[in-house]
């Protein structure tokens, strides 16, 4: 292993136990908070709202989340092939979905495990595949920023800090997909801190590799995948509110869902847990939705989006590990 090779990012068994405990702790804290709000509101009203939902409706919510995961997974595959990786669609989906298990890590850095699986299966080092994570995250920021901006424009009333959050998301997407800008940020960061030379050097190398994604057609298709995927979950939130008798309109529901996700991400908490739920409940309350509806609606939409994704990740993770190790051994024995 050369000095430039990254340290393994896939969790060893002890790390997986730690991540599972972090996941359980986060879920527990959010659950305690939601239970407290439900108790303060009145259990009867909260349970009555939950009882409105049928299993078929829950299935629709999960199906719309799957649309999001599938669109983004296909986008990941498209980016992988554009970078030059000879991976199949099933490989890409396995990498992408398995990475959801690491969404509970701070800043979601644990999702870099996808790079390790790719390295095992293709031999490509981290420096060559790092642009995948950058362009994928930037595409999400761009899609969410555009959706939030459009939803705010179409809704009757705005959201406090909605425009700044939109601009931040779009600015992050621009920086992450412009090689010169990203390299400049890395240079400035190194000069400002005087530390982390290897990290900033890798960022500069990754920035140069981003030129592979400069095609307007490629980024246009990627933007379409992202817009369809994130709109599907925003639409699910709208349907949920309608079913609970708290219709605030499609545009406003999408705006609240996207804003809450972005705002939660800004807190740095894994998956935006805590911040996203607080923002969602507060914004629904401002729209006149009582706690007896906003609390269960928030809990259900987060379970059927974030926690559903994490559950899929934990189911796919062992398969991705086994397959990557099998292919690594096959390459070594050739």
Automatic annotation (TrEMBL):
<feature type="transmembrane region" description="Helical">
    <location>
        <begin position="167"/>
        <end position="188"/>
    </location>
</feature>
<feature type="transmembrane region" description="Helical">
    <location>
        <begin position="298"/>
        <end position="320"/>
    </location>
</feature>
<keyword id="KW-1133">Transmembrane helix</keyword>
<dbReference type="Pfam" id="PF03706">
    <property type="entry name" value="LPG_synthase_TM"/>
</dbReference>
<keyword id="KW-0472">Membrane</keyword>
<feature type="transmembrane region" description="Helical">
    <location>
        <begin position="237"/>
        <end position="259"/>
    </location>
</feature>
<dbReference type="InterPro" id="IPR022791">
    <property type="entry name" value="L-PG_synthase/AglD"/>
</dbReference>
<keyword id="KW-0812">Transmembrane</keyword>
<feature type="transmembrane region" description="Helical">
    <location>
        <begin position="141"/>
        <end position="161"/>
    </location>
</feature>
<dbReference type="GO" id="GO:0005886">
    <property type="term" value="C:plasma membrane"/>
</dbReference>
<feature type="transmembrane region" description="Helical">
    <location>
        <begin position="53"/>
        <end position="71"/>
    </location>
</feature>
<feature type="transmembrane region" description="Helical">
    <location>
        <begin position="20"/>
        <end position="41"/>
    </location>
</feature>
<feature type="transmembrane region" description="Helical">
    <location>
        <begin position="209"/>
        <end position="231"/>
    </location>
</feature>
<feature type="transmembrane region" description="Helical">
    <location>
        <begin position="266"/>
        <end position="286"/>
    </location>
</feature>
<keyword id="KW-1003">Cell membrane</keyword>
<protein>
    <submittedName>
        <fullName>Flippase-like domain-containing protein</fullName>
    </submittedName>
</protein>
């Amino acid at each position: 292993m050369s000095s430039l090779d990254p340290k393994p990012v896939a969790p060893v068994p002890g790390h997986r136990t730690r991540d599972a405990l972090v996941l359980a702790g986060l879920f527990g804290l959010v659950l305690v908070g939601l239970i407290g709000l439900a108790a303060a509101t009145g259990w009867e009203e909260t349970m009555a709202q939950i009882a409105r939902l049928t299993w078929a409706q829950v299935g629709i919510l999960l199906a719309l989340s799957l649309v999001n995961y599938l669109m983004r997974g296909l986008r990941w595959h498209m980016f992988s092939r554009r970078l030059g990786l000879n991976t199949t669609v099933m490989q890409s989906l396995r990498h992408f979905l398995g990475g959801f298990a690491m969404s509970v890590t701070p800043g979601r850095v644990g999702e870099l495990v996808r790079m390790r699986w790719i390295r095992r299966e293709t031999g490509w080092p981290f420096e060559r595949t790092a642009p995948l994570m950058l362009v994928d995250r930037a595409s999400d920021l761009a899609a969410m920023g555009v959706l939030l901006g459009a939803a705010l424009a179409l809704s009757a009333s705005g959201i406090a800090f909605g425009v700044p959050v939109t601009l931040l998301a779009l600015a992050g997407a621009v920086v992450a997909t412009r090689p010169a800008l990203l390299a400049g940020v890395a240079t400035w960061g190194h000069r400002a801190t005087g530390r982390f030379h290897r990290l900033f050097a890798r960022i500069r190398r990754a920035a140069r590799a981003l030129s592979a994604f400069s095609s307007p057609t490629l980024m246009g298709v990627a933007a379409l995948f992202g817009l369809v995927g994130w709109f599907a979950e925003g639409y699910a939130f709208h349907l949920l509110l309608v079913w609970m008798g708290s219709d605030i309109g499609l545009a406003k529901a999408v705006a609240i869902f996207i804003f809450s996700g972005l705002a939660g991400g800004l807190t740095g908490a894994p998956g935006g847990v805590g911040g996203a739920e607080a923002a969602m409940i507060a914004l629904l309350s401002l729209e006149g939705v009582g706690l007896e509806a906003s609390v269960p609606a928030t809990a259900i939409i987060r379970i059927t989006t974030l926690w559903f994704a994490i559950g899929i990740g934990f189911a796919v993770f062992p398969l991705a590990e086994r397959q990557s190790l099998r292919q690594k051994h096959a390459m070594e024995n050739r």
